[in-house]
Amino acid sequence: MYAKLEQKVVLGGLSESTLTNYGRCIAQISLHFNLVAIELEEEQINGYLFNLAKNDQPSKSYFKHTVYGLRLLFRIYDREDKAIRLPSLKRDAPLPVVLSMKECRQLFKSGKMLKHRILLCLIYSAGLRQKEVRNLQQRDVDFDRMQIHIRKTKYRKERYVPLSPLMAKD
């Protein structure tokens, strides 16, 4: 069963940690009931998931990995009837941390060299991710249009971000 799960994860382009997490969660539910996960009844699965959600133990991500791991396992074994009935998960939408003006000034002045200060200002004002910053090239910053061209990444589409007035050429 694990070999089939591994094959599906690898061919699906998922990460090694995804395989580890799904495998661990499937093994845990199997050990809990002393049954192979594929043989569990819907009531058993729902009861197990209810206890995970109710007690918030060990964590929300563990609950998520359990649900997604079981969903993938049931699809591998053509048990779509069980896969569809697993609960859907709501995403938490945490509010972003917004720095005060004083904190922004402190952040932007923390760079030792001018290029470091400019880069900090650019990253914060445009809300760039690490990979987007690493892939950023000088030609991607258009001072005339006051825009930054962000190349396509795994999580975001290719887009243009307005350049902060802080970055305007003097």
Description:
By secondary structure, this protein is mainly alpha-helical. The protein has 2 domains: 84 residues; 67 residues, hpI Integrase, Chain A (Orthogonal Bundle), CATH 1.10.443. Helices cover 55% and strands 6% of the residues. A 3-stranded antiparallel beta sheet has the order 1-2-3, with no helix packed on it. A hairpin with a 4-residue loop joins strand 1 and strand 2. Helix 2 crosses helix 4 and helix 6 packs antiparallel against helix 7. The termini are far apart. The mean pLDDT is 83.
Summarize the structure.
With 170 residues, the protein is mainly alpha-helical. It has helices at 2-11, 16-33, 42-55, 60-76, 80-85, 101-109, 114-126, 130-135, and strands spanning 141-142, 147-150, 159-162.
Which stretches are poorly predicted, pLDDT < 50 over at least 5 residues? none
Strand content: 5-15%
Which class of secondary structure composition applies to the elements?
mainly alpha
- Report the biggest beta sheet as strand number plus sense, adding barrel if it closes: 3 strands, antiparallel
